Task: structure prediction
Amino acid sequence: MDVTDTRPESREARQSRDTRAEILEVAAEMFTERGYEATSLREISERLGITKAALYYHFRSKEDIMRALIAPMGDVLTELVERLEAARDVAGWADALSWVIGMVFENVAFFHLLERNRHAMEQLHETFQELQGHLQLHERVQAAVHAAASGIEEEIRMFAALGAVTAFDDWAPKLLAEGPPDVIQRELRAAVDAILRT
Result:
């Protein structure tokens, strides 16, 4: 017997969910436009037309809002590492990197937020430390490369291809923000293929 609750979501639950999403949307816009440090919780609540108490119901601080804004990228990183671990050869590695290139452009607003607030992100370094510690990225990626590569030459190329993709926003944030997404994705994928020689 199916005991799934099929009752419609309560009005309060819908409002709670919508308010939280609206807070995140407005905060992302304001942090990107004005910067994290120059934006107050009062200004976020005023733009939304809600009280500070209503905002505090969902988020206790600006740090909590920023953590919520960057959390989806943790999911992307988790899946990337899983795809890299599942790759059995250089072609699988290329497929995983091609996937993450697409995800960059599905989440380009995150990279705009990151670029505008690099200093604040450094101040909130604990957030990234927790994320990296949780995923144990370096150890997992190193193990995945070693398992998939046929020799040291392939290992070097696999790490180089990963670096080319994951460092792109650091070196070219303006291009990432303003360049034509289809051209950037095409050229990043071509660079990965050239490095991996697939």
About this structure: Residues 1-11 have pLDDT under 50 and may be disordered. The radius of gyration is 20 Å. The CA atoms of residues 26 and 101 lie 26 Å apart.
